[in-house]
Amino acid sequence: MLFPSLGALLLATSVVAQDLSEFTGTWSSGSGKVITGPNFADPSEAAFKYPDVAGISYSFTESGYFELARYRFISNGSEPNCIRGVLGWLHGTWEVLSNTSIVMTPIWGDGYQQIQDPCGANSNFVENYNGTEIYSTYAFSTDAADGRRRFQLFEHNGVPLPPMFLISETPTMLPTNKLRNVSAPATVDKNKRELGSESGSGDRVNVADKAAVVLSMAALGLSSLLI
Ligand SMILES: *[C@@H]1O[C@H](CO)[C@@H](O)[C@H](O)[C@H]1NC(C)=O
Ligand SMILES: *[C@@H]1O[C@H](CO)[C@@H](O)[C@H](O)[C@H]1NC(C)=O
Ligand SMILES: *[C@@H]1O[C@H](CO)[C@@H](O)[C@H](O)[C@H]1NC(C)=O
Ligand SMILES: *[C@@H]1O[C@H](CO)[C@@H](O)[C@H](O)[C@H]1NC(C)=O
């Protein structure tokens, strides 16, 4: 091509034009074991079906609904034996802003997450999670090796999430209406279903504080994500 920069410019323009149909479908990171929909979350019970391995998955409909599924391990360098597992599920509506940032607004009271902290006073619990997800930008590409469609989200601070691949052009999602009755207690102790080690450090850290730490760690991208 004589003017490759013109091609790049046209490409950039088409990104700004935001063809939302490109988002439509279900995306999953890594080996594709974490997938939104009924094989991951059971919101009526605030329960999860544990995937074999960690990963993230997002589904989008062109009509403006999203669902996300996350199973992440978060390590803390000063406590190398205390890797926390966090399972999370959320759904609601999404939009792309004119500056290419993406805002995902949850259906209030439907989202929840399970935190498995082998060193915590309460080592395994479920809590509500309604955080609005804000991503600074996104990128689509085609994998050079196998031609799969690739999608990447960047956190509000620019840190990229693991790349995801299109696993289904039809979104695999639970119903997009409100699915939980959240007059139930916000925190459910799941110790009897604990996956992690039993060894407790004996510290008496408040559960809510600990959850807030995990959440803000995830939000700030300070933690290493072993995905
Ligand atoms: C890591 O663990 C130490 C010791 O418990 C704690 O003081 C520190 O805040 C933790 N770091 C993060 C990022 O959570
Ligand atoms: C999320 O929703 C639950 C249930 O409605 C509520 O108790 C909780 O305070 C909310 N949490 C946040 C962080 O908004
Ligand atoms: C895009 O605009 C929104 C709304 O004004 C803002 O919150 C967000 O930080 C902006 N994104 C970037 C990457 O500047
Ligand atoms: C929500 O739970 C409350 C208390 O158990 C119950 O009275 C109410 O009927 C429930 N609402 C729905 C929509 O399930």
Automatic annotation (TrEMBL):
UniProt keyword terms in alphabetical order: Endoplasmic reticulum, Membrane, Signal, Transmembrane, Transmembrane helix
Segment forming the signal sequence: 1-17
Membrane topology designation: Single-pass type I membrane protein
GO (cellular component) term, any one: endoplasmic reticulum membrane
An MF annotation (GO) of this entry: unfolded protein binding
Subcellular location(s) of the protein: Endoplasmic reticulum membrane
This protein's record includes keyword Transmembrane: yes
Presence of the UniProt keyword Transmembrane in the record: yes
Pfam family membership, one: Rot1
GO biological process: 'de novo' protein folding
InterPro entries xref list: Rot1
Family that this chain belongs to: Belongs to the ROT1 family.
Protein name: Protein ROT1
